[in-house]
Specification:
about 210 residues, alpha+beta, Sortase, Chain: A, nine-stranded mixed β-sheet, about 30% helix
Length: about 210
């Protein structure tokens, strides 16, 4: 009986120490990622010019296409900037929770340790989805946002795209299509991150402010 109590105590102590180690490890990773993102953001801003609205002249009679206005124009690809071997589409700012972070062009687990990433979508097609770790320095606080809070995405041309939060969801981690669904009809931008357990996704939807 005594041996069993000792074994249980030893196991409990080991589990507590493991949990403590995991918490400390996550705090260190959070801080390291936040500091790295700040450095990248500074370099990215140096690469982004001040935005000026381009003016397109009316086409002349000699090259005017009568049917062009009836054709659905193809959405342009998002421009990118390379920094230290990684490719970025711009940076995101959420004043309500005090974050401003670079956004990588493509998502991967190594990339998520650096900065938020484009998951899928295109800013010009109003279906952009951005994912990030639940670090406090990344998307860990997006669940604290409220309807009407502003999200600002600055692309690499310097243009600001402003959005207003309209919806919140907690979606099971396996429900990938639920994260993607409804993009064009209901919202123009989606942000998501893992819950602390990693089993679900905290998802924020926003619409463009014209």
């Amino acid at each position: 009986m005594k041996a069993a109590k000792i074994a249980c105590f030893t196991l409990g102590t080991a589990l507590l120490l493991s949990a403590l180690f995991l918490v400390i490890h996550n705090v260190i990773e959070d801080r390291k990622s936040g500091e790295e993102a700040v450095k990248i953001l500074s370099a990215l801003k140096d690469e982004i010019p001040e935005y000026t609205e381009s003016v397109t002249s009316m086409p002349g009679a000699e090259n005017y296409d009568l049917f062009a206005e009836y054709e659905e124009p193809a959405a342009p690809e998002m421009e990118t900037v390379g920094i230290d071997g990684n490719v970025y589409i711009g940076y995101i700012a959420i004043p309500e929770i005090g974050i401003e972070l670079p956004v990588l062009q493509d998502w991967s687990y190594p990339n998520l340790k650096i900065a938020p990433c484009r998951y899928v979508g295109n800013i010009y097609e109003n279906d952009l989805i951005i994912c990030a770790h639940n670090y406090n320095t990344h998307f860990g606080k997006i669940g604290n946002l409220h309807t009407g809070d502003e999200i600002i995405l600055t692309d690499v041309s310097g243009k600001e795209w402003r959005y207003s939060v309209v919806n919140f969801e907690q979606i099971p981690g396996t429900a990938v299509e639920d994260i993607k669904s409804g993009n064009a009809d209901d919202w123009d931008l989606t942000l998501f991150t893992c819950t602390l357990s990693g089993q679900s996704r905290v998802t924020v939807r926003a619409v463009k402010i014209e």
